[in-house]
């Protein structure tokens, strides 16, 4: 490239061009050789251009130039060498004089140091002997120390102090074994030390195996003890709730009484607190026997020994596998006993197992990890849930379910104190809530049927105050706060307190099942099943009884009285369920529904109405003896009404002893209404072909006697109730008033008819009017006259009947 650029700038002659190119190549080659570069490019270029001779020429030129440089360099160094040789020759004389001086000094030193060397040899010999003696003494001391450690190790082995024995053996092995001068003793120790360690391992393993056997029995007792303490604590809570409910019920007492009650509760709380502190005061040390009564010393000793032997991980694995096998064996249920008999032992064994594991986790120094305990617990709770599911699904007795549920809930409370999650167990209990209540309803259905079957439906006699308290006050079905005189005849029969006890027991069992099951507010659930018990079980049982077994007025009246008492009892049931569920009573008032036994109540009253109507019909048949074409009106009432009034007076005197006023009012209202319908029906019926005004006036007297009977009941009923009773006779009264009226045409006036004759039917009035035969000028005398001269009576009556037909 450089030659090309030069050719572009200068155009020399051919000879000059060749010389300049050769010089340049020679210069480049010299620079490359001096720098140690590769000459391959030059060689290729020479052969490529066909001029290798030029390259050889340049190489020879470079060689000649370097030979001259080497020659000049050697000449310069040769001169320096000659100068150095001349300097050395000048030093030879000085060296000879120094040599002779050193020889004289050596001779003098040899003569002086000879005796000293002899003394030094003696000293070295003595020092060697001393060192040998000291070594012997050191070895003797080491042997003595070794023998002492061996003796101490034997003593510890004999006394069972394996840890100290191992420490002695470790010290012998680490500090003295290699320094032992006796090969025989060393071989013996090397053989015995592994045997000693193996023997210690076997002994502590045997102790650990014995502990594994013992801890199973201890765990069962421990679980029973802890669950028993949880049960006692729960009972104390229940007692406290009872006292609180009693305090609420007695809130109307004086301040002094209330203060006394509160002080009593504080004292009880103090006692309870002391017991709780004793229960919680357990030994938290790593070993030893605490208040819970189980000893972990063999376990921790075995663990410590294995740590000392360097077998910690192996022992941890061995311990976990054995405990896991024990837990698996605890899951096995005996086929020889029922689950009801063995469930307490089953759950107590598992509870004790995990209480022990919790103690080991907290004090075992890493013997078992929290993850291992959690894995064991997951296995255990899964197995317990499956066992519960299996046996609950096969149980057909509510009481058995409740017993097992209570124990499982106590198990949950116990293990929750130690940090174990028990929600899965509570979910199983909640899952079988419906089945339990169905079984409970079935049991109550049988008990209620038996109670109703045994009832003779006679008023219950109570001779003592405790009977009154047990059968009346305990269910709050009394009508007065004043304690009656004894003997006391209650308005209800014996089935009422029996059924109340059954319902109360149902409520308590339901609350007991729902309590401590993980659900805090369970009143609505208890209320739902209580409503089912009342509306499905008790109501249906009463309906069946009413439809099949009631055949007399006294029985029907007693059942109606029982229904009235049950209305008060149902209020008590709701309040009792609320109190047991921890709900304030005023909260229950908001969701108050209709009377759950309304079907049975209505059926009982309908049955009573029907029987009374049959009785009344037996007396009203005497209406056939009435003289419907009497020459004179009667003044003392017809025979039938006198018989009916006598019967009604007897009925009222009996019914007011057991029936509440509102029920008695409904009964009389139905009976009077039936009497009214009977009178109207007799007038409209085929048995009465015709009648006159005198007969109607006699019927008017009959109705007045019935109204007078109602007025005589003023001491029982309020004025409004008495008026309502009179309205039961409204149809007959309005009909008689119409027939005795001088202005019968007012019946056709809609306003007057709505006000005075609203109970009358056009057809009945028309039918009855057609039977009227009146020879007087009084009845229908002015009908249709409108100021003209009067029509004959027959024409007036026909016009009246025609108008009625037209309107109807």
TrEMBL record:
Annotated family: Belongs to the SEC15 family.
InterPro entries the UniProt entry points to: EXOC6/Sec15, EXOC6/Sec15_C, EXOC6/Sec15_C_dom1, EXOC6_Sec15_N, EXOC6PINT-1/Sec15/Tip20_C_dom2
Keyword Transport: yes
Annotated function: Component of the exocyst complex involved in the docking of exocytic vesicles with fusion sites on the plasma membrane.
Annotated keywords: Exocytosis, Transport
Gene3D superfamilies the record matches: Dsl1p vesicle tethering complex, Tip20p subunit, domain D (1.20.58.670), Exocyst complex subunit Sec15 C-terminal domain, N-terminal subdomain (1.10.357.30)
Protein name as catalogued: Exocyst complex component
Pfam families: EXOC6_Sec15_N (PF20651), Sec15_C (PF04091)
Residues of the Exocyst complex subunit EXOC6/Sec15 C-terminal domain: 425-771
Residue ranges annotated for the Exocyst complex component EXOC6/Sec15 N-terminal domain, each copy included: 59-225
Transport recorded as keyword: yes
Species for this entry: Hevea brasiliensis (Para rubber tree)
């Amino acid at each position: 490239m450089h030659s090309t650029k030069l050719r572009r700038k200068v155009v020399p002659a051919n000879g000059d061009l060749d010389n300049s190119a050769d010089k340049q190549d020679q210069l480049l080659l010299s620079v490359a050789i001096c720098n140690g570069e590769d000459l391959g490019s030059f060689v290729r270029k020479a052969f490529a251009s066909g001029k290798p001779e030029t390259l050889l020429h340049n190489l020879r030129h470079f060689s000649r130039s370097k030979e001259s440089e080497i020659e000049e360099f050697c000449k310069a160094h040769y001169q320096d060498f000659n100068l150095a040789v001349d300097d050395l020759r000048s030093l030879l004389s000085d060296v000879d004089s120094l040599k002779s001086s050193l020889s004289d000094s050596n001779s003098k030193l040899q003569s002086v140091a000879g005796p000293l060397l002899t003394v030094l040899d003696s000293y070295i010999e003595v020092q060697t002997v001393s060192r040998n003696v000291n070594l012997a003494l050191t070895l003797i001391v080491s042997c003595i120390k070794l023998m002492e450690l061996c003796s101490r190790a034997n003593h510890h082995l004999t006394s069972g102090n394996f840890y100290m024995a191992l420490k002695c053996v470790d010290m012998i092995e680490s500090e003295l074994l290699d320094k032992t001068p006796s090969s025989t003793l060393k071989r013996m120790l090397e053989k015995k030390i592994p045997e000693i360690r193996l023997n210690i391992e076997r002994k502590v393993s045997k102790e650990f195996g014995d502990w594994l056997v013992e801890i199973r029995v201890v765990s069962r007792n421990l679980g029973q003890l802890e669950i028993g303490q949880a049960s006692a604590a729960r009972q104390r809570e229940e007692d406290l709730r009872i006292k609180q409910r009693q305090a609420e019920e007695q809130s109307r007492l004086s301040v002094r009484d209330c203060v006394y009650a509160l002080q009593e509760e504080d004292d009880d709380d103090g006692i309870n607190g002391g017991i709780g502190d004793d229960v919680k005061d357990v030994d938290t040390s790593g070993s030893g026997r605490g208040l819970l009564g189980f000893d972990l010393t063999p376990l921790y000793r075995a663990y410590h020994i294995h740590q000392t032997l360097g077998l910690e991980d192996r022992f941890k694995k061995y311990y976990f596998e054995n405990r896991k096998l024990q837990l698996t064996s605890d899951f096995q249920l005996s086929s020889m006993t029922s689950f009801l008999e063995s469930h307490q032992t089953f759950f107590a064994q598992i509870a004790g197992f995990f209480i022990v594991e919790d103690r080991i986790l907290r004090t075992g120094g890493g013997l078992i990890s929290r993850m291992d305990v959690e894995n064991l617990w997951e296995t255990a709770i899964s197995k317990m849930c499956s066992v519960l599911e299996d046996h609950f699904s096969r149980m057909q007795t509510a009481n058995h379910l409740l017993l097992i549920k209570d124990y499982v809930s106590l198990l949950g409370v116990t293990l929750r104190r130690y940090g174990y999650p028990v929600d899965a167990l509570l979910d199983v209990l909640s899952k079988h809530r419906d089945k339990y209540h169905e079984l409970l309803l079935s049991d109550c259905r049988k008990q209620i049927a038996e109670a109703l079957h045994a009832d003779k439906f006679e008023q219950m006699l109570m001779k003592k105050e405790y009977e009154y308290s047990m059968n009346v006050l305990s269910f709050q079905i009394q009508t007065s706060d004043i304690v009656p005189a004894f003997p006391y005849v209650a308005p209800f029969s014996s089935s009422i307190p029996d059924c109340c006890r059954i319902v109360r027991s149902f409520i308590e069992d339901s609350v007991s099942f729902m309590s401590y099951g993980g659900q805090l507010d369970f009143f609505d659930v208890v209320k739902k099943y209580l409503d089912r018990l009342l509306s499905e079980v008790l109501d249906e049982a009463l309906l069946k009884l009413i439809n099949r077994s009631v055949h007399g007025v006294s029985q029907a009246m007693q059942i109606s009285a029982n229904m009235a008492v049950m209305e008060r009892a149902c209020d008590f049931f709701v309040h009792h369920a609320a109190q047991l569920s921890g709900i304030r009573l005023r909260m229950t008032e908001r969701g108050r529904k209709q009377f759950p036994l309304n079907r049975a109540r209505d059926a009982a009253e309908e049955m009573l109405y029907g029987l009374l109507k049959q009785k009344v019909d037996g007396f009203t048949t005497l209406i056939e003896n009435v003289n419907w074409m009497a020459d004179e009106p009667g003044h003392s009432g017809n025979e039938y009404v006198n018989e009916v009034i006598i019967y009604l007076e007897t009925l009222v005197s009996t019914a007011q002893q057991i029936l509440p006023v509102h029920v008695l009012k409904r009964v009389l209202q139905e009976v009077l209404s039936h009497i009214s319908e009977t009178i109207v029906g007799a007038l409209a019926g085929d048995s009465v072909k015709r009648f006159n005004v005198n007969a109607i006036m006699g019927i008017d007297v009959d109705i007045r006697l019935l109204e007078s009977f109602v007025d005589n009941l003023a001491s029982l009923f309020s004025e409004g109730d008495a008026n309502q009773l009179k309205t039961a006779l409204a149809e007959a009264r309005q009909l008689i008033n119409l027939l005795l009226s001088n202005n019968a045409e007012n019946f056709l006036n809609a306003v007057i008819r709505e006000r005075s004759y609203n109970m009358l039917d056009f057809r009945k009035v028309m039918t009855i009017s057609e039977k009227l035969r009146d020879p007087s000028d009084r009845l229908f005398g002015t009908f249709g006259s409108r100021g003209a001269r009067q029509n004959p009576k027959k024409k007036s009556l026909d016009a009246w009947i025609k108008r009625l037909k037209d309107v109807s």
